[in-house]
Amino acid sequence: MPADSWRFHLYIDGACHAVLVEALPYGSVTLWWRINVIAFNLNMAMKKLALQGSWVSKRMKAIRFHLVNLPGRIIDHARCLVIRIVKDHPSLGLLVEAQQRIPRLAPSG
Q: Considering the entire predicted model, what is its pTM?
């Protein structure tokens, strides 16, 4: 395995916590690796396209604690999903910016 490939493997293991279970049947290891690469790519796309700024260099653990694990409620009302979080939470501004940036990523046409 080339050195760059090995470094990438170690980086994904650390970034996505892609701990490989040795008891997986043959073929499942490849599927497990591909799922982790997809998760890694989605994470990088989210950081570069939706979050930007200083969040591009943050690890998934920081994103999880600041954005994903926020206390709040998801309310399904009148065919709309509403996410309610605390108004003065420090990550609220970042979430609003990311929410406004995502629709602009769609190709026009």
A: 0.62
